[in-house]
Design brief:
- The complex is a heterodimer of chains A (about 60) and B (about 375).
- Chain A has one domain.
- Chain A is about 85% helix and about 0% strand.
- Chain A is elongated, with a radius of gyration of 14 Å.
- Chain A starts with a helix and ends with a helix.
- Chain B is α+β, with helices and mostly antiparallel strands.
- Chain B folds into four domains: about 120 residues, Roll (PH-domain like); about 60 residues; about 55 residues; about 100 residues, GMP Synthetase, Chain A, domain 3, CATH 3.30.300.
- Chain B contains 17 helices and 13 strands.
- In chain B, strands 1-2-3-4-5 form a five-stranded antiparallel β-sheet.
- In chain B, helix 2 packs antiparallel against helix 3, helix 5 packs across helix 6 and helix 12 runs antiparallel to helix 13.
- Classes of the chains: A mainly alpha (about 60), B alpha+beta (about 375).
Chain lengths: ~60, ~375
């Protein structure tokens, strides 16, 4: 049950994250800051998600 | 350093199709201090992450492993939300861009994720640039607003909260001068003025002893209140005469001046500039030798508005400075052009210089 709820939360997050990354690439003017920003965003998000799943299992 | 606009850059970036030969000169972003409130908001949003589990635990609300699991999931989701908020704020801050090309100024602003506004200003219409640094943080970190005033009744174009606004203002004026200079050809005003480091309008006024620093300060205050140009404010306050302003602009740009009050205009020459252009640019043709047309304008910034029309007729232009009121009066008196008069001065598509030389028709100062 708890993982079903969390899966729904993650689904909403994935939609939001996709829009966010799309904007980073769509409106970039010059430089590679968008690639760096998108990478950091995805990596940190994955870290938070993994940490949450581990904490749920550990509890 | 300028670089060629890649169509992809502009289309992708601000959804504006680039023009042939257009180059990006500068790209400005808001000062990083504008992102600070979002960082503080994010930090504040983190407080419940530590506070709520501690409170729930201390009142004994978490009694089973399942409760703890749900709490961990809620906290994890909330942290994910805070992180997304921070990144969204960064995108909102970072993707508000001011682009200056050699032809236009573009203000691309991401209002919301699905609303992006792009303001555009033709650099040739730039009339005045003002810098406003208001506030403690702005003064300390050196950021503020750059107000770009344009010809006509349009509202100011504002680069808000940009770092080093004075430097940006100078760069804008330099790019504008280069554009204006190109309009003058090789012996251009822009090139000459850049080579000689042209004095500012205020400096020339002071050097000529026409005004004091106090007068300038009073006029600047009036200017801020009414939105008028500095010269107009000085005239309105009775500190200088209109003629002095004309002479000062002429001296500033090393251009001759002319008094149009008793000038004998040749309709054939006047007709070289269409009425719409003349009224828009506050410009009137006063003489021509068949190749070069002498055009009276109130300020060199008006030159780029007139030049394309003359170049389209295979003519070049020499500019002289005249009082804007005198020019407007001359436009009202000489337009619309009567056809019979228009043909009178032409000889094989050109105008007899003997009929139209400025030395004979009107006083040059």
């Amino acid at each position: 049950m708890i993982f079903t709820i969390y899966a729904i939360v993650l689904l909403i997050f994935v939609v939001l994250a996709t829009i966010l990354v799309y904007h980073m690439f769509r409106y970039n003017i010059r430089g590679n800051m968008h690639i760096l920003a998108a990478s950091v965003f995805i990596l940190v998000s994955l870290l938070i998600i993994v940490a949450t799943i581990i904490s749920i299992i550990a509890a | 350093m300028a670089h060629k606009v890649q169509t992809k850059e502009i289309v992708s970036g601000v959804r504006v199709v680039s023009r042939p030969g257009e180059q990006i000169e500068k790209v400005y972003r808001r000062h990083w201090a504008n992102f600070l409130p979002y960082i503080f908001m994010t930090l504040a949003m983190f407080i419940p992450v530590f506070l709520v589990p501690w409170l729930l635990d201390s009142v004994g609300f978490i009694s089973s492993a399942t409760d703890q699991q749900y709490l961990n999931m809620i906290v994890g989701s909330y942290v994910l939300f805070i992180w997304s908020f921070l990144v969204m704020s960064w995108v909102n801050y970072y993707y508000d861009i001011f682009i200056v090309t050699n032809e236009r100024i573009l203000d691309a602003e991401l209002k919301t994720f699905f609303t992006r506004e792009v303001g555009e200003l033709n650099l040739a219409r730039l009339q005045n640039v003002e810098v406003k640094i208001v506030g403690f943080l702005e003064t300390l970190l050196r950021f503020g607003d750059v107000h770009i005033r344009t010809a006509g009744q349009h509202p100011d174009f504002v680069f808000d909260k940009v770092p080093h606004p004075s430097v940006i203002a100078n760069e804008l004026l330099e790019i504008h001068e280069r554009l204006t200079g190109q309009a003058y050809g090789d012996e251009s005003l822009g090139e000459r003025s850049m080579m000689t480091e042209r004095k500012s309008f205020r400096e020339v006024l002071k050097d000529e002893g026409l005004v004091t620093q106090t007068d300038i300060a009073r006029a600047a205050a009036e200017q801020a209140k009414t939105g008028k140009r500095l010269g107009e404010a000085l005239v309105d306050l009775g500190m200088v005469k209109r003629r002095d302003i004309v002479d000062t602009i002429g001296q500033q740009y090393n251009l001759p001046t002319v008094d149009l009050t008793h000038y004998g205009f040749n309709p054939a020459v006047v007709a070289l500039i269409s009425e719409s252009t003349a009224r828009r640019a506050h410009a009137i043709a006063i003489s021509s030798n068949g190749q070069v047309v002498t055009v009276a304008i109130p300020h060199p910034r008006q030159a780029p508005e007139v030049l394309p029309e003359l170049r389209a007729q295979g003519l070049d232009a020499a500019f002289v400075i005249a009082d804007s009121q005198e020019i407007d009066m001359a436009i009202n008196q000489n337009y619309p052009i009567k056809k019979t008069e228009t043909n009178g001065g032409f000889k094989n598509g050109s105008i007899d210089p003997a009929d139209t030389s400025p030395e004979e028709e009107g006083p040059m100062e």
